[in-house]
Design a protein that fits this description.
Helix content: 25-40%
Order of helices and strands: EEEHEEHHEEHEEHEEHEEHEEHEEH
CATH class of the largest domain: Alpha Beta
CATH superfamily of the largest domain: CBS-domain
Number of helices: 9
Radius of gyration: 20 Å
Number of strands: 17
Shape: flat
Strand content: 15-25%
Structural class: alpha/beta
């Protein structure tokens, strides 16, 4: 990182009036609109990325993601994998240039819940990809005492330190982020309902429910309450697409991630951030004191939470 890290109790809107280039976003991974979805799956898996830019002679013409894959899938899976990228990609995506401001990207991600923004040069060629992870890393680097020193939390009990009750409040200044915002209970940064499915449900039925509800993950339960796993876009990419016959009898329990890391709704925000960064998670399921799933928090939820406090 080339920007200056300051140790202070707060940052304001002016902190984000810096060029995107200061964040050193990752170089773009591109794919042709004529590539098959099978090739897309292979690329996303190999690069361990959630989205890639669609380019034609290096010029940006679209963006395609894991979500695009499962939001468009149909029952004829073999034929689906032979479709072209252009059939599922997002055309004319929002893009920025390296000298545009980080503040614009933060507001865009917060309002539209966009996880990735392509960066182009003056010729319209895709060169880099700015992610919500990049934005969040930029923010937390200003607060080492409030985030890094708190550490991760995987094994916990209900008497664990660094929890806040529902009445927790902190001093707020309009247009400013203070260090104590990272000690907010996670419940304050939850923006959508949790979709729960039974572990015996067929994977095709679960995907259909995710499509209808617009969810990128589901909590997998037993007896309607006990959390036994989680199914995410990344699970679908690595364990389902190209490997499972969606017209068959494969059940969600066979492809889910079992025994997922969880947190309480009253655990503090720093724990979720550190867990996500350490394990490369995008989502964490939040549970009650009996460890039954009640909600979830995502990387983009946290970015939106900060953007809402600033703008």
């Amino acid at each position: 990182m080339s920007y200056e890290i300051k140790k202070h109790v707060g940052i304001d809107k002016s902190t984000f009036e810096v060029a995107i280039s200061e964040l050193n976003p990752r170089k773009v991974v591109g794919i042709s609109k004529d590539a098959s979805l099978k090739e897309l799956v292979q690329l996303l898996t190999r690069e361990n990325q959630g989205s890639v830019c669609v380019v034609e002679t290096n010029v940006l013409i679209g963006i395609v993601s894991e979500r695009d894959l499962f939001m468009n899938v149909d029952d004829d899976f073999d034929s689906y994998m032979l479709k072209k990228v252009e059939e599922v990609m997002t055309n004319r995506p929002v893009f920025k240039k390296m000298d545009d401001l980080v503040s614009d990207c933060l507001q865009l991600m917060g309002v539209r819940r966009i996880r990735s923004i392509p960066i182009v040069n003056d010729k319209g060629e895709a060169t880099h990809l700015l992610t919500a992870h990049d934005i969040l890393q930029f923010i937390i680097n200003f607060f080492p005492e409030s985030v890094e020193k708190i550490g991760t939390l995987y094994d916990w009990n209900v008497l664990e330190v660094h929890v806040q009750d529902e009445n927790f409040s902190f001093k707020q200044v309009d247009g400013e982020l203070l260090g104590n915002i990272f000690f907010s209970p996670l419940k304050n940064a939850v923006f959508s309902d949790l979709l729960k499915v039974d572990h015996n449900e067929l994977i095709q039925d679960v995907i259909n429910k995710m499509k209808v509800d617009g969810k990128n993950m589901v909590a997998v339960t037993s007896y309607e309450t006990e959390l036994v796993g989680v199914l995410t876009e990344r699970d679908l990419l690595k364990k389902v697409f190209g490997k499972v016959d969606l017209s068959g009898q494969t059940r969600v329990s066979q492809v889910m991630t079992a025994s997922p890391v969880t947190l309480l709704e009253k655990h503090v925000l720093s724990y979720a951030i550190n867990n996500m960064f350490a394990k490369n998670f995008r989502n964490i399921i939040l549970v009650d004191e009996e460890r039954n799933p009640v909600s979830s928090i995502s990387l983009i939820d946290i970015v939106k939470f900060f953007a809402d406090k600033l703008y």
